[in-house]
# Entry
Amino acid sequence: MGQIIRRILKIFQKGYSILEVLVVITLIAVIALTATRMLFTTLSGSGKATNMAAVKQNGDHTVGVIERAARGASSVDCGLGNTLTVTDADGNDSVFSITANQITLTTTSAVSLTSDQLIAENFTCSLVSGVVGVPDIVLVSFQLRRGVPGVDRPSDVAIERFETRVSLRTY
# Structure
């Protein structure tokens, strides 16, 4: 038993060679580099998801407002294709269009339907007239963007196209 203890003590008194120290330092550096990459990948993915969620939330809200207004309208007009004018049962007009890079709803005053942190583009509207017994259909599409591709980091750019098709209740 005493001989085993002497051998163990002899091993601990020996110390480390320079090669062993360099191998340990290299392993620690590789582990730290891998952990750092994983952290940055996670953080950049989180930023992209946050931006995309903001774009989707604004777009879904805007589509919902347009659909509700169009369904209850007594008449709808798409003008030149870049505005949507909805006239309700009381004869009040609501105009949907892009103003200062935001989708706005103008009744007696203008209200932005999208955040000022987003850029609204390519608002189009078309009216498909139905035949007797088939309702007219309004097609509306637009694009929302957060960030500028090629200028901002790819993780800071989120682009989504929204389209809706609304069957009018006026036959």
Summary: Helices lie at 2-14, 18-71. The chain has a mean pLDDT of 85.
